Amino acid sequence: MISKKANLDNLEETEKFRVGAFSARYLKKAIERGIPKYEFPEEGMSPRAAYQLIHDETSLDGNPFLNLASFVTTWMEPEADKLIMENINKNIIDIFEYPQTAKIIHKNIVNMLGRLFNGHNTEFMGTATAGSSEAIMLGLLAHKWSWKNSGRGTGKPNVIFGTDAHVCWDKFAKYFVVDAIRIPIDKNKRTITADEVSKHIDENTIGVGCVLGTTFTGEIDPVNDINDLLLEIKREKGWDIPIHIDAASWLYTAIY
Ligand SMILES: Cc1ncc(COP(=O)(O)O)c(C=O)c1O
Question: What is the pLDDT of residue 160?
Answer without folding.
Answer: 98
